[in-house]
């Protein structure tokens, strides 16, 4: 992705679970907050303008509780196979916060984007129970992948 952005950077934060460095900034053109991987940034210039602090409370909260996916935090309910439970222990990149485990149902708190990224790696070793939107998006991704591998023409 080669976007030319004018951003107002607020801080750089290391996301330990994903082992990445991010710039948390405000995208002035699109009028949204962004989390940009530092390794993806090519700095062409620095504007000599004072950065406008837009939502000080939000920015401070992000500094303290940084989440590179930035979205709304959702409650995710999932059931894992025994292999999936083993994978859960070993998959550490962007691992979600475990809220509780009742019997065989795990409950996590994370953003939808983080959940799509994280749980797609489990394939058949996890069943997402809630939210339905995550189930639908994973199903769609898996069906698209299936069509690629089901195509006999290579």
Overview of this structure, please?
Strand 5 (97-102) and strand 6 form a beta hairpin. The longest helix is centred in the C-terminal third of the chain and has 19 residues, at 132-150. The strands form two sheets. Strands 5-6-4-7 form a four-stranded antiparallel β-sheet. It has helices at 56-64, 82-90, 112-119, 132-150, and strands spanning 7-15, 20-27, 32-37, 73-80, 97-102, 105-111, 126-130. The protein is built from four helices and seven strands. The model has no long low-confidence stretch (mean pLDDT 84). It is of the alpha+beta class. The radius of gyration is 19 Å and the shape is globular.
**For the terminal residues, how far apart are their CA atoms?**
27 Å
What is the helix content?
A: 25-40%
Please provide the ordered H/E string of secondary-structure elements.
Answer: EEEHEHEEHEH
Task: Give the biggest sheet.
Answer: 4 strands, antiparallel
Can you give me a brief rundown of this structure?
With 154 residues, the chain is of the alpha+beta class. Helices cover 29% and strands 32% of the residues. The strands form two sheets. A four-stranded antiparallel sheet has the order 5-6-4-7. It has a three-stranded antiparallel sheet with strand order 1-2-3, covered by helices on one side.
